Amino acid sequence: MEINFKNDFINFLKKLREKSIDIGVMALPENSAYFLCLITYIYRENNLKIVELGSGLLYSALWMLYGIFISGKKGEIYTVEKNDEIYKESLRILEEGSEILKIDLKEIIKPFKKDASLLKGDEFGKNIDILFLDIDKKLYLESLNKFFPYIKKEGLIIAHNVISHKDELKNFLEEISNFNKYFTIILETDPQGISVSIKK
């Protein structure tokens, strides 16, 4: 890789967040994006499988990928987005990023156009290391239940907006608070809050 690879990646991510804001597509606050990067950087497995529901313009997926890269690991990130225009734009972003970074990002990030409510949970196979939820809040619990059988033991479930939308997410929060199934912590990486649950 080129000696300026890290700087190029960070600059690309900053511009992508600005673009997301400009066109009105939600993107994670930078502190939470850094947090996701940290998670993939320190994650114990050397070959990660990540599923992200509600991918937008791939800002958070690319931050997770950056954590994988700088740790020397490998991985695949399956992203799900229901909006047709946003999905098409995300494909263009992968092309642009591949040219800038001199890496075929499409080999690692694999966008999937579908409404998360229509997923069965088995679309991406077994042994999921990380499930990241950032979709319609009413779908959090349903999505977790669908994907639960396919998440590795000691795999992670990460969810955004668990503080700002705690009333809407009451049932989801009750589920991830079940100590027989999960070890969960809620962090204020940004005012909206993020939860991290380890599947027991």
SSE blueprint and pairings:
Layout: H1 5-23, H2 30-42, E1 47-53, H3 59-71, E2 74-81, H4 84-101, E3 109-113, E4 128-133, H5 140-147, E5 151-160, H6 170-176, E6 182-187, E7 194-199
Proportion of residues in helical segments: 25-40%
How many alpha or pi helices? 6
Major sheet summary line: 7 strands, mixed
Distance between the termini: 37 Å
Strand numbers in spatial order across the main sheet: 3-2-1-4-5-7-6
Shape: globular
Poorly predicted spans: none
* Sequence of secondary-structure elements: HHEHEHEEHEHEE
On the 0-100 scale, what is the average pLDDT? 94
Could you tell me the number of beta strands?
Answer: 7
**Class per helix and strand makeup:** alpha/beta
Evaluate the radius of gyration: 16 Å
**Residues in β-strands, percent:** 15-25%
